[in-house]
């Protein structure tokens, strides 16, 4: 894993999004992500929607059960959506963040360990479905359509912190 920037605390504004949300087991989750990403590109491009980085958001994390995930894109303006693609937001707030290349699992561990060492508290509630996050995502700064090698993607990992 190569860390390009961070870890650090960053403040982000609210950003409009369009996304496809689903629940899937952890095993096979990334294959589901890839299919949803292709579907999202197709739908947004066909609708003429202007969009920025595509992201993979983890709403609920349960590594031994089901993951509540969303594949989305930051849009230039709010969108109406359709039967599959729904409008949403990446909420404003303070985030623990880093940008990395390769080894997402190690990057997540690095960011979580750093935040814990800094005494930072994530916007997270542990419930019967797993860890429910106020906002946890990976934004693909490298366009997956132009770089097929996932090990070369630059990815921003961000987890929202509790408001102080």
TrEMBL record:
<dbReference type="InterPro" id="IPR010499">
    <property type="entry name" value="AraC_E-bd"/>
</dbReference>
<feature type="domain" description="AraC effector-binding">
    <location>
        <begin position="5"/>
        <end position="162"/>
    </location>
</feature>
<dbReference type="Pfam" id="PF06445">
    <property type="entry name" value="GyrI-like"/>
</dbReference>
<dbReference type="InterPro" id="IPR011256">
    <property type="entry name" value="Reg_factor_effector_dom_sf"/>
</dbReference>
<protein>
    <submittedName>
        <fullName>GyrI-like domain-containing protein</fullName>
    </submittedName>
</protein>
<dbReference type="InterPro" id="IPR029442">
    <property type="entry name" value="GyrI-like"/>
</dbReference>
């Amino acid at each position: 894993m190569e860390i390009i920037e961070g870890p650090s605390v960053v403040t982000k504004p609210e950003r409009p999004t369009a996304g496809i949300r689903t629940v899937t087991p952890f095993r096979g989750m990334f294959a589901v992500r890839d299919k949803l990403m292709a579907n999202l590109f197709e739908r947004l491009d066909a609708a003429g929607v202007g969009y920025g980085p595509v992201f993979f958001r983890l709403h609920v994390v349960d590594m031994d059960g089901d993951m509540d995930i969303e594949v989305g894109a930051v849009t230039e303006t709010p969108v109406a959506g359709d039967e599959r693609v729904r409008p949403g937001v990446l909420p404003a707030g303070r985030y623990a963040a880093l940008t990395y290349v390769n080894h997402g699992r190690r990057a997540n561990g690095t960011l979580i360990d750093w935040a814990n060492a800094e005494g930072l508290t994530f916007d997270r509630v542990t419930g019967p479905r797993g860890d429910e996050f106020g906002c946890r995502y990976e934004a693909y700064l490298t366009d997956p359509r132009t770089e097929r090698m996932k090990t070369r993607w630059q990815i921003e990992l961000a987890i929202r912190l509790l408001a102080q």
